[in-house]
Every structure is written in structure tokens, then in C-alpha cells.
Design a protein that fits this description.
The complex is a heterodimer of chains A (254) and B (651). With 254 residues, chain A is of the alpha/beta class. Chain A is built from six helices and eleven strands. Chain A is globular and about 70 Å long. In chain B, 52% of the residues lie in helices and 5% in strands. Chain B contains 26 helices and eight strands. The chains are: A alpha/beta (254), B mainly alpha (651).
Chain lengths: 254, 651
């Protein structure tokens, strides 16, 4: 089985984010990058499927030169090949634009299964995988906890709300967006890094962005902190009732 | 220059030597010698071949030759380690050894006599002196070997192994016989048959003894002087990996010449196991068995084998009880406290071997451990062993108002994972910072700091270790740091020693050394409290710092020594990355040590390592009512500083 894993490189979780001078994106100059967490789980799932069923794992990532470090790490953890779609203008492309880049590369590979994280740590749109499946004309399932290969195709476990799960059977080829935490991640080893040196990374140039983007980014800003104090008055019972109401509907903490 | 005849009948005054040897006797002797030598090399040859065919130690250098000579004189000739670590049996062993040296000439002369080449005339002044000198040694050897025999077969200390070693009994008997047959010659007439009987007894004993040497652990007689001279320079020195195919000790082909030489030198005395915190608390790990396991592996598979060293990954006959000692479980129970390597009398360096086995398992991904993986991912992702967000460190620095190092300050204060993230470690750092402020020493902290890679290093993850070391070296270089001070002996050791593989770090010292240097300006406290000081492994055995922290403790109260202290200190259980691994099997190392410290009756347990501190915090609180107070030496000092210097150490 040939599995393609679409991964994204995102700023490290602890990074001190600041806004770029034009207010349209974050300042990337002093940032460290890492693999998007749900994508790390997608990669892990792919590696485990390969270990169980054999086949090949190809990792795919779009972005500037710096994303090759994330691709190398994926190779070190056990992916067989990597494809780098070189593009310096991802910030100017919307979800559809990026999914188109990925779809072009995926078509050339014609994989049996495409895995990707359910969403990204930076933008968190949760759209790319779904749009990619649509562009390729293959079925997809989202928020996947478990994948099992069957004779007919796949049986997957989806996470629904409120502790509910859904089991879905689907044919191949297909696309799954993987939830974090379904598996235990592995650590990169020295042997893996050494082996990764001999593995192939293919670089393809991104097709130019189409002029008309469905979504345009207007402003990026850090969450604005608010401090508001309100004294509730009345009998203890009244105060308690008001407090519950505020916690429920205003703060939405309970 | 001939074997002179003895004219007198002064039986007890001179050594009797046989006057004449028949042609048959001479031929028998030569045949005997030939057989003995053949049998000796029958076994010794293959051993030498195994050692020479092992992989070269690419980092070996004879360089500090003075240190090597000194080790040879002290450890081999003076038997310093043998005596120091086990005084009575050590002294008995030393007498046997020195007796052998004194006997070398006598034995040569003894054999030479038979072919008319004797060179020591018992009647000459020199001869009289030397034979009496040797006789005195023979007496000492005979008494010592008897005592050692009694110890081994009747007292039976458990460290010598559960199985009685009969070969040792035979060897002891042969040595005894050699001495008695020599001494006997002082009491017989030179012309009788008794002297011949004694001569042949002595000779045959020698000829039987020789081939037994390479077939038994008495091989150490021949090779351990070389082992001591050639051992790797530096304590717990982990050699660099060479080339793209080297991941540590995976199989026989990774075993280096030094390791081969060392494992064949093992005399099975069990000192390593006697002091091992894992062996003492019911774990599988037994350092002696790791050495013997490696030796059996080399005997069975040879130094070019691709068969896995660890028994988890090769087929082992089910009736082989020693297999468990070469398991991954055993290798990962080591706290790297170094007490095994520290006191090995034949120059075996256990840590490069144990850590080498871990490297082989971790670098290839064969070691799958939930806690270990979590630790490595935390280091990869967050750069600290506690797995907390790096922002937590920033917040702590802000709260403490620690200045950022900018090149104007004298010291860079290294926080480490414990000092930067752990609540108790933060108290220690905050208190040490107060001491520095009180002394008027300027310092700053790095804006960004990652773990030194110590736990990854000891658990055999060279990838993470290298990443951490390179990050740290660059951070020091960018900030133009000249001098570093740290509260954690693990950080000090790793930065000053292990990082050398990737570059030279600025000079670093432990806060005990810093404070001891300034002790004249630190307040002397009349607390009257008794404080028992615990030597951290990485400060004591690893860095030879024993007195500095004691000087600080003595400023704060009355110093009490634990039963096991200084270089004999017993580990807290945290080292070697074990602080981050899961529940121990058997008794907890930290509980054993904490009970020992509390058992001194001291009011305070004084520590000098944040890891020891955190281990004892848990262990002491589990001990129930009124455990002693637990304070780092920085806290012991800071509590006496004037109030104006007070800044809250509470985190």
C-alpha cells in the first residue's frame, strides 16, 4: 500500500509570536519551526500501517526551503521518500490554493491512501485535507482515531462530540484526517537520521498562484486581553444564580 | 655461575638445591615446560587474537602518559585500589602479588638449576640475602593465600558469586604448595632424596599453574597490568561514535580492543556489584555479569559477529540464567553512579560499556519505553527534560528579575532543567542567586537555554544529545560567556566533559566550588544543627569534589557523615536518566539512601544536586513522621544572609 502523508511545518509551540510590520502575518524572522502536531500523528499512523501491511510512505510538504528540515525528520522516523513543493508565498494562497498544490503532487503519485492531520496548529482551519480529497475525487473521513485495513478497503474510527465515536467503512483510495493522540509517537534515532541521508527528496516548483483567491487575509493580531470586574449583588441565592448564568452564557466556562 | 654444591650441613641456614640432574630428568623437565607452554598458549593465543581483532579504539591516545604511569605504579605495583577498597583481603592479595614479584627471580633460578644455569648461589652473600628475603615473602604469601582461601570457601562473601569457584581453590592450593615446597628446601639436606622431591614438587606445581592462568580468571595476572595502563583517559568517558555505521554497542563488531582487554581482565571479585545501587535494591542489573556476559559473548561469537550483544535480540538457550544480565532491562537500570568503575582494581571501565549497550539500543530505535520516548520527545520539542513550555522559564526569570547575560557580567548562571522548571530547583537557584548578590558577584542568565542533554547522553540517545550540545555551545558563543556556574552536577559534568565531542564550552564550576572559594565572606551560623551531607555521584566520583560542599555545610551547622560517604557514597537513584523513567522494580534506591541519611539522626539532610534533592524529597516524605529537613547547600547558606538580601525563594 502506498501512503502519502501531507504534512505542514508550523512555528514551535513555545515560540514568542509577534506580528509582522504590515500586520498581515506573523514575523517569521526569529522563529523555530516544527512539524504540525496532528500531522506527526498522521505520519505515525502511516508508519504503523506500513509496518503492519507493508508498502511505502511518502511525505509531502509545501513551503519555503526551511520545510526540508521537517521532511528530513519525517524520513528519519521512517518515511521512504519525500516531496517538497517549493513555494515562498504560502501566506498569499488560501486553503483551496494550497490544496491544489498538494493535489497536483498527489496525482503524480496516485497513492492508495492519503493521510493528513485534522488541522494545523497555526491556522487551525481544518479544511486542507477535505478540499484535497474533493479535488482528487476520492472519499474522505475526518478526525480519525484508528485505522484498520480490511479486504474491501478501510475501517476507521471517527471521533464525534461528547464522547461518541463513529465507525466508517470505506473503499480505497481515500483520504483521512488524523486526530492527535491516537498513537504513541516515536523518537527520531541516530540510525534514522543516517538512513534519511540516503533517501530521496524530490523538489517540485509550485505552480503560480491564481490571481483570484476565495479568501483574503485582512489583519493578524494577538488575542486582546480584557479585564472586567463586575460585582454581583443580592442574596446569596440570587448571586449564585446570576453567577451560574454568567459562567454559562457569558464566559461559557460551564 | 653454576649450581654450586652446598658444602655444609647447616640445614636451616641455607636453601638446599639438588646437586645433580640426570639426563632423563632434564629431558622430562624440557618436555614438561613445552607441554605447559603449549597448554598456556592454547587458550591465551585465541584470547589475544580476540582482543587484537576487536575494533580499534579510534579515540585512543597514550597521551597523558604520566597519568598512565602513575596509575600503573599506584594501582598495580602498590595495589592501591585493591587495598583501599577492601583493606583486609586487599592486603592479603597485595602480599601474594608482591610475593610473586619477589619470587620471579627465585623461580627462574629454580628451573635454571636443572640445566646448570642457576645464577643465584645460596652460599653467596647475595644468595643468602635473596633467598631469605624470598622466604619471608613465601611465608607471607602462604599465610595470605590461606586466609583468602578461608574467606572464599568458608566466610563466602556474597559478592564472589553464589557458585563456589573450585578453580580458585585449586589455584590457592597450588600457590600454597609453591611456597611450602620452597620453604621446605631450607630444612633438608642437599644430597638426599627429599630435596629432589621438593624440587620436582615445586617445578610441577609451576608447570601446572602456568596453563591454568589463561583458562581461569587468573588471566588477570598476565593482562590486568596492561589494562590498568591502557584504560581510557577520564572517568565514565563515553567514546565518540565513528562513521555512519556506528550506533554504540550493538553487536560484537562494535566491541573495541579496550573493551575486549577489559572484559578478559575481570577477576570476578564483585566489587562493582557490591556497591551497585541497582544490584543492592533487587534489580536485574549486575555490573559484574555485564562484563562476564560480554566476555562469554566474545568467546562464543567473536569480535566480528553481527549477533546482538543484548540477549533480547538473539536466541538464548532457555537454561542460560546469565542471559538476563545482558538484557535491555538490566542495561537500562543503571543510574550511572559510577561506583563500579570507580573501584575496579583491574581497570575495567563499566560505564562506557553499559552506556554503549544503551546507545546501541536507543540509537537504533530498539529501545521502546514509554517514559524514555516521552523524555526524548520532550527534549526534541521543548528542549527541557521536564517537558514544560520554554515560556515557563521566561516567566520564572522575569519573576526573579534575573538579568539576561549580556557580556558585562562575570558569570553566566546556568539554570538547568531543574533550576528553570522544577519548583524545588527554582528555590535553590533563587537562593544561590541571593548568595551571589550578597557576595557582589555579577551574573546573568541565558535568554534561551536548553537541557545539556545529560539524560539523553546517559540513555544512549546521541541524536538528542548532539542537538542539545550544539545548541548550548552556540548559545554560549553568541552570548560571549567566559565563566559559568551551575547548581547541578549533571549539567557541570556534561558541559565541561561530554560536550567536548562537539566543541569547547566556557569554564564551568559547581556552586559548591564557587561558594567554598568565597567562604571567608559567607556568614558562619551558630545553629548547632547537625547536617548530614550526601555526596552526589556526579560531584564526587565524577568531579572529585568532596571537601568544598562540606566546607559550606560546616558554615551552616555541624557536619555529620553518612555511613557511606565520599567516593563510597550511595546513589540517590536519579542519574543516568532514571529520574525520568518509570517505576523501579524492587526497592527504591532513593528510599534506601534516604533511610541511611535519616538514620544518622541528623536534623538536616544537606544536598548539592537538585536531582538528589528531588529524589530525597519524595523518599523522606514517604518515611512518615518527622523526617529530617532537606536543604541544598545554597539554601543552607542563603538562610543566614541579612534580610536586606532577602528575596523570596518561594516559587
Amino acid at each position: 500500500m502506498k501512503i502519502l502523508v501531507a504534512i505542514k511545518q508550523v512555528p514551535e509551540r513555545d515560540a514568542q509570536i509577534s506580528i509582522a510590520a504590515d500586520g498581515r502575518w506573523i514575523d517569521e524572522s526569529d522563529l523555530s519551526y516544527t512539524i504540525n502536531e496532528p500531522d506527526a500523528y498522521a505520519l505515525e499512523e502511516a508508519l504503523q500501517l506500513k509496518e503492519k501491511n507493508g508498502g511505502e510512505v511518502v511525505v509531502l510538504c509545501a513551503g519555503p526551503e526551511r520545510v526540508t528540515s521537517t521532511l528530513r525528520e519525517a524520513l528519519a522516523k521512517g518515511a521512504d521518500r519525500a516531496i517538497h513543493i517549493e513555494a515562498d508565498d504560502l501566506g498569499e494562497r488560501d486553503t483551496l490554493g494550497i490544496a491544489q498544490l498538494l493535489a497536483d503532487a498527489a496525482r503524480a503519485e496516485s497513492p492508495d491512501l492519503i493521510l493528513t492531520g485534522l488541522q494545523s496548529d497555526d491556522l487551525g482551519l481544518g479544511q486542507t485535507g477535505v478540499v484535497l480529497a474533493e479535488l482528487l475525487g476520492i472519499p474522505h473521513a475526518t478526525i480519525i482515531m484508528q485505522v484498520e485495513v480490511t479486504t474491501a478497503g478501510l475501517k476507521v474510527k471517527r471521533e464525534l462530540e461528547d464522547g461518541w465515536f463513529q465507525y466508517v467503512e470505506m473503499p480505497l483510495p481515500a483520504l483521512l484526517t488524523i486526530q492527535s493522540g491516537g498513537n504513541k509517537l516515536r523518537y527520531a534515532t541516530l540510525m534514522g537520521i543516517k538512513k534519511a541521508k540516503t533517501k530521496e527528496t524530490k523538489t517540485v516548483q509550485a505552480a503560480p498562484a491564481t490571481a483570484a483567491q476565495a479568501i483574503t487575509l485582512e489583519r493578524v493580531y494577538l488575542p486582546e486581553k480584557q479585564k472586567k470586574t463586575e460585582i454581583l449583588t443580592g442574596t446569596p441565592a440570587e448571586v449564585a444564580a446570576k453567577l451560574v448564568e454568567k459562567l454559562k452564557f457569558e464566559v461559557r466556562a460551564i | 655461575m653454576t649450581a654450586a654444591l652446598i658444602p655444609g650441613i647447616h640445614l636451616s641456614a641455607t636453601l638446599a638445591e639438588p646437586a645433580h640432574f640426570s639426563g632423563l630428568e632434564k629431558i622430562s623437565l624440557l618436555i614438561g615446560i613445552a607441554i605447559s607452554l603449549v597448554l598456556f598458549f592454547w587458550r591465551f593465543g585465541p584470547i589475544l587474537r580476540t582482543i587484537f581483532r576487536s575494533k580499534k579504539d579510534n579515540d585512543f591516545s597514550l597521551h597523558p602518559i604520566r597519568r598512565r604511569l602513575w596509575d600503573f605504579v599506584w594501582e598495580v605495583l602498590c595495589q592501591g585500589k585493591v587495598i583501599r577498597q577492601r583493606p583486609l583481603p586487599g592486603l592479603a592479595h597485595a602480599f601474594v602479588f608482591w610475593g610473586f614479584l619477589a619470587f620471579a627471580l627465585v623461580s627462574l633460578n629454580h628451573i635454571a638449576n636443572a640445566v646448570g644455569l642457576g645464577f643465584l648461589n645460596p652460599a653467596s652473600d647475595l644468595g643468602t640475602f635473596y633467598f631469605f628475603f624470598a622466604a619471608a615473602w613465601a611465608l607471607l604469601v602462604a599465610v595470605s593465600i590461606t586466609a583468602l582461601f578461608v574467606r572464599r570457601f568458608f566466610v563466602r562473601p556474597i559478592w564472589l558469586g553464589e557458585k563456589v569457584s573450585y578453580e580458585s581453590g585449586v589455584i590457592a592450593f597450588l600457590i600454597f604448595l609453591l611456597m611450602v615446597s620452597y620453604l621446605g628446601a631450607f630444612f633438608v639436606d642437599a644430597s638426599g632424596t627429599a630435596v629432589k622431591v621438593l624440587w620436582w614438587t615445586h617445578t610441577l606445581t609451576l608447570l601446572v599453574f602456568l596453563p591454568l592462568i589463561p583458562h581461569t580468571k587468573h588471566l588477570h595476572l598476565v593482562i590486568s597490568p596492561f589494562t590498568v595502563f591502557l584504560k581510557r583517559d577520564g572517568f565514565s568517558r563515553i567514546p565518540p561514535l565513528s562513521g555512519d555505521e556506528d550506533f554504540g554497542l550493538v553487536s560484537g563488531k562494535d566491541v573495541t580492543q579496550l573493551i575486549s582487554l577489559q572484559v578478559y581482565s575481570c577477576v570476578e571479585c564483585g566489587r562493582c556489584t557490591e556497591h551497585c545501587p541497582a544490584s543492592n535494591t533487587g534489580k536485574v542489573l549486575n555490573p559484574k555479569e555485564i562484563i562476564l556476559g560480554t566476555r562469554s559473548y566474545l568467546n562464543e561469537f567473536g569480535p566480528a559477529s553481527e549477533t546482538s550483544l543484548l540477549t533480547d535480540m538473539r536466541e538464548v538457550p532457555s537454561n542460560n540464567p546469565a542471559a538476563k544480565y545482558m538484557s535491555m532491562e538490566a542495561a537500562f537500570e543503571c543510574t550511572t553512579c559510577g561506583s563500579c568503575e570507580y573501584q575496579c582494581p583491574v581497570g575495567i571501565q563499566h560505564l562506557p560499556i553499559i552506556i554503549g549497550l544503551r546507545r546501541g539500543a536507543t540509537n537504533t530505535g530498539a529501545w521502546e519505553d514509554t517514559h524514555g520516548t516521552k523524555l526524548f520527545l520532550a527534549l526534541e520539542k521543548h528542549g527541557n527534560a521536564l517537558g514544560l513550555s520554554a515560556m515557563e522559564r521566561d516567566k520564572f526569570i522575569q519573576k526573579q528579575a534575573f538579568p539576561i547575560f549580556d557580556g558585562t557580567q562575570e558569570y553566566c548562571l546556568w539554570l538547568g532543567c531543574m533550576g528553570g522548571y522544577d519548583p524545588k530547583g527554582r528555590e535553590i537557584i533563587a537562593d544561590f542567586a541571593r548568595v551571589m548578590q550578597y557576595l557582589g558577584t555579577t551574573f546573568g542568565v541565558l535568554k534561551k537555554e536548553k537541557c545539556t542533554g545529560d539524560p539523553a547522553r546517559r540513555l544512549g540517545n546521541d541524536l538528542v544529545f548532539q542537538t542539545m550540545a550544539e545548541f548550548g555551545l552556540k548559545a554560549f558563543e553568541t552570548a560571549k560567556v567566559q565563566k559559568i556556574v551551575a547548581i547541578c552536577p549533571h549539567c557541570v559534568r556534561t558541559i565541561s566533559n561530554d560536550w567536548r565531542e562537539y566543541g569547547i564550552a566556557p569554564e564551568i564550576e559547581h556552586h559548591s566550588e564557587f561558594m567554598a572559594r568565597h567562604k571567608a565572606r559567607l556568614p558562619k551560623q551558630d545553629s548547632g544543627e547537625s547536617i548530614v551531607y550526601h555526596d552526589p555521584c556526579y560531584l564526587g566520583r565524577y568531579r572529585d569534589v568532596y571537601e568544598e560542599p562540606r566546607e559550606i555545610v560546616s558554615l551552616a551547622g555541624e557536619l555529620v557523615e553518612a555511613p557511606r560517604s565520599h567516593e563510597r557514597s550511595f546513589c540517590c537513584g536519579a542519574g543516568g536518566g532514571l529520574a525520568f523513567l518509570g517505576e523501579e522494580s524492587g526497592e527504591r534506591v532513593s528510599h534506601v539512601r534516604a533511610a541511611e541519611l535519616a538514620g544518622t539522626g541528623a536534623q538536616i539532610v544537606g544536598t548539592a544536586c537538585p536531582f538528589c534533592n528531588t529524589m530525597f524529597r519524595d523518599a523522606l516524605s514517604a518515611m512518615g513522621e518527622a523526617p529530617p529537613q532537606l536543604l541544598d547547600i545554597a539554601q543552607l547558606t542563603a538562610r543566614a544572609l541579612p534580610a536586606s538580601e532577602m528575596r523570596t525563594g518561594e516559587q
